[in-house]
UniProtKB/TrEMBL annotation:
Gene3D superfamilies referenced in this protein's UniProt entry, alphabetically: NAD(P)-binding Rossmann-like Domain (3.40.50.720), Succinyl-CoA synthetase domains (3.40.50.261)
Pfam family, one: CoA_binding_2
Record-annotated CoA-binding domain positions: 10-106
UniProt name for this protein: CoA-binding domain-containing protein
PANTHER family: COA BINDING DOMAIN CONTAINING PROTEIN, PEPTIDYL-LYSINE N-ACETYLTRANSFERASE PATZ
Record InterPro entries: CoA-bd, NAD(P)-bd_dom_sf, Succ_CoA_lig_flav_dom, Succinyl-CoA_synth-like
Amino acid sequence: MAQRDDMRRFFSPQSVAIVGVPRKPDRFGGGSFLAKLLECGFPGKLFPINPGADEILGLKAYPSLSSLPVAPDLVIVSVAAAHVPAVLEECARLGVRHIHILSSGFKEIGTEEGGRLEERVRKIAGEMNLLIIGPNCMGPYCPSSRLTAWGAIPGMSGPVGVISQSGGITQRLTEYLFSMGIGTDKAVSIGNAAVLDTPDYLEFMAHDENVRVIAMYLESVGDGRRFFQLARRITKSKPIVVWKGGETGVGARTAASHTGTLAGNHALCEAMFRQSGITHVRSLHEWADAIIAFALLPKPQGRRVFLIGGGGGNSVGNSDTCIREGLDVPRLSEASMNRLRETVPVAGSIAGNPLDMWRIFDDPDYLLEILELAYDEPNADMLIVDRLIPRKAFHMEERADATAQIAKLMRKHLLEKPTVVTADSDGGDPELAAKGAALRAKFTSAGIPAYPSLQRAARALAHLYRSGRHL
């Protein structure tokens, strides 16, 4: 419990010292971190450490941590790997326990010296009771504290917690979720995880009430037994979505060069994920899609989906896609069929499931009527609703945006039947792509997950359904 409480300071420091800030911070490292913290409006005190500088980026520079007027809450270390142990010892003397080692050059480089330095870091931390993120990582990220030197800048607070062995992938995920209308409460890039390892962060986020879904990118797990036991307990109340790197021989070899870790047996990892209730994904798209579904939707009662859209070919293809993803596209009740036959013409449309009725794209009031029918339908557990971006090719006129009205009705019934939206804008047309992204972000920001294809929507719902079955 004490360590969980201690770890909060990583994400809400009142003061940050950066050891190793060049006088001209024009490249990645301590200087760029300082510049980004200033840019995002970090409200606390910032202390650049450089014995050869008096001022950096308008801030007073200090020759050492020992010369600071106060002990900082967080120290970011960005010096050559050989000098890191001395910085850790200075932190210990000053009573500073929260340290992020940005520097690389440890076990991940595959040399005897790199491994020896990492073991020295681990030994100092154990002897002096230090909490260390890294080495070789981007460290903590928290928009609510304006601790956003990386990731989506300035970012947006939301229900997602991220634990990742890749800074670049974490960066991309936070940006991706932000563009789709979902914020991140906390993220941590853990790199080699020499001291604090994956289970430590997992236990911390499990008890964080602001985090509703935990997203993880893993190449390895140091303490597999502890990880499994934690995950099996946590997934009963909070979903965990894992993208596992290093599943192939080439990927595993690359992981060893990336974080100095062994990727582990693929079959064993699969079994562990399945038995512990972890949702396993294999791409950034699938990761983000599942995260959004878990963050915004309740668990469905079953796997039966009602497809609401237009176009005969789309209806056929979409039905096939849902079945392949493990969902069901059932026949509707006779009561619903009778209601549909009153408004759906025999020629050029299909009254049923899937519903092929072009009018839903052009008449918001009619779509609302269809949605009410769908929420009353006893044979449907979930809804996928297609939205079309008006354009000349479809002989459609621009109309007033009814997104808010549609999303309001969907939210009203969300606990009854999880509902997602699709808005396809692929194909290379930049104007169409921009309109599609904006429309999806509007729905997601309003609490309704929106996806760029039915296949991605169906897979996200399938993950949601299977997760519910595990409980």
